[in-house]
Amino acid sequence: MTQPTLKIENLQTHFFTGKGVVKAVDGVSFEVGRGEVLGLVGESGSGKSITGFSILGLVDPPGRIAGGRILFQGQDIVGLPPHEMRSLRGRKIAMIFQDPMMTLNPVLSIETQMVETVQAHEKVSRKEARARARDTLGMVGIPFPEERLASYPHQFSGGMRQRVAIAIALLHRPDLIIADEPTTALDVTIQSQILAQIQTLTKELGMALVWISHDLGVVAGLAHRIAVMYAGRIVEIGPTDDILDNPTHPYTIGLMQSVPANMPRGSELKAIPGMAPSPLHRPTGCAFRQRCTFATAACEIEPPLDAAGNVAWRCFHPQARRAA
């Protein structure tokens, strides 16, 4: 059996504050193989981004990884010395942020930033690094890449800045990319173009990709598998078609019903009642039970991970499968 590029086992990332322990990520497990795209979806505050930051070792105090393993190409990278983590970050594992200005320095030219990124991990000449930067800009659809190397971030549109950020992530042809809602702020047309390019590049370069998003519509057209997060835990995971065609967990069903495209024209849009619980005061048992119309006394106990076929979920009342 082929070893997955990334395998996370029972990851726990907690923030130790004066008011208590915030369990932002609480027992997350999944894996992603070479050339595979995993969509990590859920509401804001569900722990998606902290999961991504944990993989790259970017969780700042008072947060830290309190338990679990992060296996990258078979090696547990939790607790690696800082210099070893830096050698992986950017070279073997890259991240694309939601706001490209978190990646780009506004006072440095694109050429300077990309060349320095190459030379930070490889002993190559500036000429060679510049050529790679130019070619990578062209790969992500930047027109006239030779000329645009001299430009500064403010001279690009939002969509083009995001393409530059993606190009920087691709400079070393990493084995794993974590994309944290990189198309959220873009218009639909630009979003579609970038998604198409990401799909092509992932397939051609054989990269593993974790795509973090709250937009099921985006994930539906991009990911091979979907993991649904709620209150720091994965409540359902499986192949994209299985999750979207026959959702099992009531929370997944609620997310599906909240997408306007899934509702008949003129019908009332359904919303999940209530709000997600605070990770500082997570309720006992199933964290979704206070918002779930199917909750019973059994839900006061934490549901175990159950599975059928390629889909796994945490729920005592898998409504969709029972109805089917």
Automatic annotation (TrEMBL):
User: Which family is this protein grouped under?
Assistant: Belongs to the ABC transporter superfamily.
CDD domains for the chain: ABC_NikE_OppD_transporters
Query: What name appears for this protein in its UniProt entry?
Result: ABC transporter ATP-binding protein
Tell me which residues make up the ABC transporter domain.
6-256
The cross-references to PROSITE patterns, in alphabetical order and at most eight, read: ABC_TRANSPORTER_1, ABC_TRANSPORTER_2
Nucleotide-binding found in the keyword field: yes
Gene3D superfamilies per the record? P-loop containing nucleotide triphosphate hydrolases
Give the CC-aspect GO terms.
Answer: plasma membrane
Q: Which GO terms describe its biological process?
A: peptide transport; transmembrane transport
Q: Which keywords has UniProt assigned to this entry?
A: ATP-binding, Cell membrane, Membrane, Nucleotide-binding, Transport
MF terms in GO:
ATP binding; ATP hydrolysis activity
